[in-house]
């Protein structure tokens, strides 16, 4: 039995969760509350860097979400979630890596707003918006007449990029200037795997309480 250790608000976790569902695999879902549970000895034996997600398959432990996705694709190749054509494979990989390296860091600037907390530094927000705009334009240019990046079928590019892009409108970054990307986002959110892993207001409120507790501790220390 596969076991996924995750936190529901984490895009890194959600991309693995969605992939497990899309591949029709049986798995156990174990939530790690980021209020200190990630530092407990039992979890550190699985993920010594106290990061989520982590996947356990029998006696084999896999950390880092992209490595987990590669493992799942190699061990459970049906349905195939990476294109075979070299150009299309390169598109899928580029989307994955650009999401991780270029999109996710500036998106984290908006995390306080996502939680309903006061926004951060206006200049940092402006710079982050500019960086995100560059990525969205690039993604728009990679989409052709097929419904997904380099494919007629859902790929690992979707589960990596989609779990970040679909959050942007909730923090005031519109996809209206990117019609192909907007339609792509709508296709993803209509899928059962996205609906099954959807972030709820209760999840947001729970994590906001953790963040506020940390802020209170810092203020009094």
From TrEMBL:
Residues 85-207 form the GST C-terminal domain. Keywords: Transferase. Pfam families: GST_C (PF00043), GST_N_3 (PF13417). One of its GO terms (molecular function) is transferase activity. InterPro entries: Glutathione-S-Trfase_C-like, Glutathione-S-Trfase_C_sf, Glutathione_S-Trfase, Glutathione_S-Trfase_N, GST_C, Thioredoxin-like_sf. Residues 1-80 form the GST N-terminal domain. It comes from the Bacteria. PANTHER family: GLUTATHIONE S-TRANSFERASE GSTA (PTHR44051:SF8), GLUTATHIONE S-TRANSFERASE-RELATED (PTHR44051). This is Glutathione S-transferase domain-containing protein. It comes from Tolypothrix tenuis PCC 7101.
